[in-house]
Amino acid sequence: MRIFNVKTIIVGGSATGMGVAARLKRNDPNATIVVYQEKSYVSLGACGLPYFVAGNFSDPNNLIARSITAFEENGIIIVPNTQVFKIDFENKLVYFDNKTDSYDNLVIATGATPYIPPLVGVELKNVYTLTTLEDGIELKKAMQNPNIKNVAVIGAGFIGLEMSETLSELNKNVHLFELEERISPNAFDPEFSQFIKENLEKNKINVHLSTKVTEIKGTDQVQAVVLADNSLIEVDAVVLALGFRPNTEILRNTKLALAENGAIIIDETGHTNIDHVYSGGDAATSSNYITGELIYSPLATVASKIARVIADNIANKPAKFVGSIRSAVVRVFDLGYARTGLGEFEAKKQGYQIRTVLIKDKDQTNYVNGQTDLYLKIIMDIKSRQILGAQMSGAVKAMQRINTLAALIWSKVPVDEALEQIDLIYAPPFARTTDILHIALAKLNK
Ligand SMILES: Cc1cc2nc3c(=O)[nH]c(=O)nc-3n(C[C@H](O)[C@H](O)[C@H](O)COP(=O)(O)OP(=O)(O)OC[C@H]3O[C@@H](n4cnc5c(N)ncnc54)[C@H](O)[C@@H]3O)c2cc1C
Fold it and tell me: Locate the FAD/NAD(P)-binding domain: which residues (predicted)?
C-alpha cells in the first residue's frame, strides 16, 4: 500500500524506532521517515553489552545491528546526535537544537534509562551503569585496570546477574547487593532464586540479600559502600543495576497519558491517547497475554514485535500486539535460568486456583558426556487445566525447552493425557526418551 505525502517522525533510534523505520519503509517505499536519535549510532543491541565487557568480542561495532549508512541507503533519513527536547502535539511539531520539524505520524521510541538511586557518592568516578555503547566501552576499559579488584554490583535482576558473571570472569571479587530477600523476585519463584544464589556462591560471588546500600564512599574514586547497618565493604568500583525508568521526562505535563512509572500508555495497536502518536518498547506499556493487564516489560522481545505492529498500523495495515508472557532467560556462569508466563505468587494474586509441580531430572542420557541436573516448575490453572507459567534451570543448552512451555501457554491447550504424550525430540546427547516435560505433565495429570 502506498502512503503519499505522509511523513513519520521517529524519536529514538534503537530496537523500537529502527524496527518501525525499517518495516514502514518496506510497507511503503515512498514513505518519508525521519529518525531523531540522540546518539551517534542507531540500532544498538544492548543485550550484548555484558559479553562485550567480558571480552567475548573486541569490536564494539558488533553491537550495532545496522549502520546509519545502511538505513540511509534504504531512504530513511536519520538525524544523529540530536535530542528532541519538546513535542507540541497540538501543532504536530518536534523541537530539537533551536529548530522544529513537523510530522503527520509520530513514534516515540525513546526507550529507558537506568534508575540511579539518590545515594551520597553516586556521582563518584568508578560508579557505572550499562545501557549505552559508551557505557560498555568505558566499563570495559575501567575493568582492565588491575587496581580495580573489588566491585559492588547493586541489584540482582538480570543485568546484575550478567554483570556478576562478567566481572568475575575479569577476575574481580564481586559483591552483589539486593534489597529484597531473594534474587530476581520479579522474574523467579523462591526455589529458582535459591538455585541462582547457590550457583553465584559456588562461583565465589559474595551475595548480600536483604541488604540496602545507603552510601558510596570515596573522595574522587570509589573506596567503599556503606550498608544500612552502618557496616562498610571496601570496593574499587560500583555497577548500578537497579532497573529502568521509561525515558519520558519531556512528556510530563503534556496531554500524553502516562502510567505511574512514566511509561507511555498504548493500546494493542501501539497507539497512544493522542491521534497519530504511537509508542512502544522500553518507553511504553505493554499487556500481559494471559491476564490482559497493562504491564511494563522492557525487553527486546517486546520492542521488536510492537515495532512491526506500529509500522503496519501507520501503513493502514491493521495489526495488533497481543501481549507478552515475559519469557526470558539469563545465563549465570555455566547454568541458565528461564521463565515464562505467571509466577506462582502472580497467579494466586490473579485469583487462579493453581496446581504446581517442581521436577528434578537430567537433561540427557548419562552415557554421553555433559549430563546435568535440570529443574522444571509448572504452574497450572486447576479449572481450565491450562498452563499459566513455567520456570526452569539447568545447563545452558537445555534452556530452549522453555519455548515449548511458552507455546503451550500461548495456545492455551489443556493439560490432558494427549498432551502428556507430546512428541518431543530425542537423541542421547539432547534428551532422554521421557523428557522432564513429560514427567511434569504426567504429574499434573495425576
Ligand atoms: C545490558 C542490557 C542487557 C539486555 N539484555 C536483554 C536480553 O537478553 N533480552 C531482552 O529481551 N532484552 C534485553 N535488554 C533490553 C533491551 O535492550 C531493550 O528492551 C531494547 O533495547 C528496547 O529498545 P527501545 O528502542 O525501546 O529502547 P532503547 O534501546 O532504550 O533505545 C532508545 C533510543 O532513543 C534515544 N533517545 C532517548 N531519548 C531521546 C530523545 N529525546 N531524542 C532523541 N533520541 C532519544 C536513546 O539514546 C536510545 O538510543 C537488555 C538491556 C540492557 C541495557
Answer: 7-284
